[in-house]
Amino acid sequence: MMKNPFGPQQDPGLYAYVNLQTRMLKNVQAARVDDQIFSVIQKSFEEALKRENIVLMGSEKKRMLAQVMKQVLTSMLSKLEDNSKS
């Protein structure tokens, strides 16, 4: 029987790639990468507001941060897709 090149299982079966992806996602989530990315974007956003002397109400600040965060993440995904085509 051929060993699974993606991990410790003996029989990779049809779902070897999905199992690998699931394990990698769990590893990334355990490293709290999403929290780190959120913190970096939030810190940059706060610094930009201070640098430009902009004061926003709590709800407006939260809304704008969400919009900026969405644009940054969309841009990141676009770069990932562009790199995968190369």
In short:
With 86 residues, this protein is mainly alpha-helical. 72% of the residues lie in helices and 0% in strands. The protein starts with 15 loop residues before the first helix and ends with a helix.
Describe this structure in words.
It is a single chain. This protein is mainly alpha-helical. It has a domain at 32-85. It has 3 helices and no strands. The longest helix has 28 residues, at 58-85. The radius of gyration is 20 Å and the shape is elongated.
The percent range for strand residues is under 5%
- Name the structural class: mainly alpha
From N to C, what is the helix and strand string? HHH
Head-to-tail CA distance between termini? 35 Å
Count of helical regions? 3
What labels describe this entry?
mainly alpha; 86 residues; 3 helices; single chain; elongated
Q: Which helices and strands, and how do they pair?
A:
Layout: H1 16-30, H2 33-51, H3 58-85
